[in-house]
Design a protein that fits this description.
Elements lengths: L1 H5 L7 H6 L1 H10 L11 H9 L1
């Protein structure tokens, strides 16, 4: 997360950086495949576990 969200660009304040966190998490959890989850997104894996 640090390299892909917190340090990807310079932010003027910590508050400005924190404003971007929800958008990053939507992408990371909903669209981005994770190798540790067998190529699934965290949302897909959660759906599997809940089924």
């Amino acid at each position: 997360m640090l390299e892909e969200w917190a340090y990807v660009m310079p932010y003027s304040t910590s508050a400005a950086r924190n404003e971007r966190l929800p958008a990053y998490l939507r992408i990371d959890n909903g669209r981005r495949c994770h190798m540790a989850l067998g190529g699934l997104t965290p949302q897909q894996r959660l759906a599997q576990l809940q089924a």
